[in-house]
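Worked problem 6 (solution included).
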Amino acid sequence: MSDIVRTRFAPSPTGYMHVGNLRTALYAYLLAKRHNGKFILRIEDTDQERYVEGAIDVIYKTLAETGLKHDEGPDIGGDYGPYIQSERKNIYKEYAEKLVELGGAYYCFCDKERLDKLRAEQEAAGETHKYDGHCRHLTKEEVEAKLKSGIPYVIRQKIPSEGVTTFTDEVFGTITVENSTLDDNVLLKSDGLPTYNFANVVDDHLMHITHVIRGSEYLSSTPKYNLLYEAFGWELPTYIHVSPVMKSATKKLSKREGDASYEDFIAKGFLKEAIINYIALLGWNPGGEREIFTLDELVQLFDIKGISKSPAIFDVQKLEWMNSEYIKKLPLEEFHQKALPYYEKTIKNPNVDLLEVSRLLQTRISKFSDIVPELVDFIDELPEYSTDLYVHKKMKTNEENSLNSLKAALPALNELNEWTEESIHNTLFELIEKLGIKNGQMLWPVRVALSGKQSTPGGGIELAIVLGKEESIKRIKKGIELLENK
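Solution. The predicted structure is:
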């Protein structure tokens, strides 16, 4: 096997990039790059029934967007192609027939009717379904006669009936299974395509994969893979099985149940950098308290020893927190460009300074889809509102003192030559001191008058900057009018 670390990501093209799949790709990428190795993309499309048109493009797009650049693959080539399993059909047939010669597999001519009957009998007897080896002991002459007569066949793995198979996994340690519990599973189907159980072993060997990272659901199948390696006389790869990503302690994430894929998170306004950062920490710990890492930093820190045996719980709130940290670090202009499509759905007033809206929102949202109409619709147009909003127990405001505050604020703000956060702040706080009132007794009425809402992103001073002087003065006059006519 190669001295260079070679890992692979081998997804099935089923239409979307599940969080668990992306994590597997990330770990394979990090391990390869940590050791200056190669990261290979292979498309496993032997299960044609699950194939979704356009799904391979989704895989390419996701890897490109997230920065998980592969060194070899269907789109860029390499020394060990083809990198799409359906294009390697002849290779699998050749190796399946070779395995028969080596005594590690055999031709099986059982038809569907016999296999269905066998299954029904075993289920009725309460037994685990397992092929009974009916064709295992056919003579060479019998096999040749059946092949010559054109009887459909599959090629099955010949599992030793006695003894044990032991292997070591870097996460789960040494695992031993009784060979008698393993099934003579199909390696090559009657249509000439391989099963996953055969194709992944042949491909990993021929592509010189040194480290296999995959989900722990494949732990139980690994002894069968090892028996294939042994039958061919091939060197085993290093196994790294990772526990699943769970929705809760008892429930896996499921696309069918609406659990998000990578594309879904992007559509909800999460940043790709935050998604990758969060997924890296799902079941892997770099040590220490730090949680925010760039992809390059993850490469430098990644170590198999940090991978946990325990399933990882996907915590959307934690992802939102992490995403908010990434959003805060964006240059304002970049945040603004990403926010514009969301503003366009709500804010129609051409006089509103949208850059100021971005300045207001950047530290207050956890994802861009938080920019919903309810958050910003008052910016476009002052909604109809009740004077009850001016009554706030904590701020010690009522309709009467709110009216007094707005009446004092109106001329003072109107006289400002410079409409800046500093000038508005100084003006209002000078009035607070002059009138001998609490801060909230001035700032709350201004906030309500400018927004017509009880809850807003930012206080009255920030809203005044977003709305501009003319619109702010107009709204304060409206607030005075409403309170006077109460």
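Discussion: The chain is about 45% helix and 10% strand.
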